[in-house]
Write a structure and sequence with these properties.
The protein is of the alpha+beta class. It folds into 2 domains: about 200 residues, Beta-Lactamase (2-Layer Sandwich); about 90 residues, OB fold (Dihydrolipoamide Acetyltransferase, E2P) (Beta Barrel), CATH 2.40.50.1020. It is about 30% helix and about 30% strand. It contains 8 helices and 17 strands. It is elongated. It comes from Pigmentiphaga kullae. One of its GO terms (biological process) is isoprenoid biosynthetic process.
Length: about 300
């Protein structure tokens, strides 16, 4: 391949290893084994992006027929714009040039986005809109089927991608595929059912995370902001007020139990009530119970069926 070529596509066995790849795989494995799935993928991308010194690390997923795709996870370096929420349920025809190589199990190393071929014009326009100078993309296969793509963006300056970087992403893609799509048949069925569950997007540090409503234990008001408690442990602060979250979250799963709190009924572990004692709910995985104020008690009992 011409050293000045604007892009290259490589099969896995054309990629030479490098000493740093062990660190990449180790960091991704640690993330995937230690955290809930969506958070783990975000942390894996954060580790990869930091180690590779790129501006974005991302993942998009295909639907069951590989006719549409959507961005699901993204990490961004400080000061780099996020685009994870831009392409949702987008037609694969938009990325047909890229998709062709991915479906052939090839990494696509775009060294110079500005000089991509005419056949890539639609995906090139999207990359330029995101201010990409260079893009590296690697397919994620599971059980012989193309399920997703992970990759890197360079926005501050163009990058001449190396085959070792592509190999590193190939190896990490294997880990992501097993974590995301492996498991028992029941788990795979659940994953397929949830694959296109609508996501709510939170800004986490320098990245943006798509969060399924089922992964939220509850939301509490923090003055003009909201504190989100997560099923995997911990909480994050969001800039939107509680009223915005009340409108965003599905009413069939969430309800207000206090003027300052919403809970996910699917995560209510216990309801403590008494004539002379304050009512509280215990949420799965949280040590401290949440108060239930009087106006919401009967509705809560009805929703819980008690």
């Amino acid at each position: 391949m011409d050293s000045d070529a604007p892009f290259e596509t490589l099969e896995r066995d054309q990629c030479a290893p490098a000493p740093a790849l062990g660190t990449w795989v180790h960091q991704v494995a640690l993330a995937l084994m230690s955290r809930p799935q969506d958070e783990a993928i975000f942390l894996a991308l954060q580790a990869l992006g930091t180690l590779a010194q790129v501006d974005r690390a991302w993942m998009f997923e295909y639907d069951a027929r590989a006719l549409r795709f959507r961005n699901t996870h993204e990490w961004c370096r400080s000061g780099i714009t996020s685009h994870v929420s831009d392409l949702q349920d987008a037609p694969v025809t938009m990325i047909a040039w890229l998709h062709r190589a991915l479906s052939q199990r090839r990494a696509v190393m775009i060294h110079d986005v500005a000089r991509m071929p005419r056949a890539a014009r639609s995906v090139q326009a999207e990359m330029l809109r995101q201010q990409d100078r260079s893009v590296l993309s690697v397919p994620v296969f599971h059980e012989g089927r193309l399920r997703a793509c992970i990759g890197f963006d360079a926005t501050r300056a163009p990058v001449r991608w190396q085959p070792a970087q592509a190999l590193g992403l190939f190896l990490c893609a294997d880990l992501v595929a097993q974590a995301r799509y492996g498991g028992t048949e029941t788990e795979r069925s659940r994953a397929r059912a949830q694959l296109y569950e609508p996501l709510l997007y939170l800004r986490l540090g320098h990245g943006t995370r798509g969060l399924a409503p089922a992964d939220i234990l509850g939301v509490r008001s923090a003055r003009d902001y909201s504190q989100i408690w997560l099923a995997g442990g911990g909480s994050v602060r969001d800039m939107r007020p509680l009223s915005a979250w009340a409108a965003l979250l599905p009413q069939e799963s969430f309800m207000r139990i206090h003027r300052t709190a919403l809970v996910n009924l699917g995560h209510v572990k216990a309801l403590e009530r008494g004539a002379s004692m304050p009512w509280t709910v215990q949420l799965r995985g949280l040590g401290q119970p949440w108060s239930v104020s009087r106006p919401y008690r009967q509705a809560l009992r009805a929703r819980l069926g008690v």
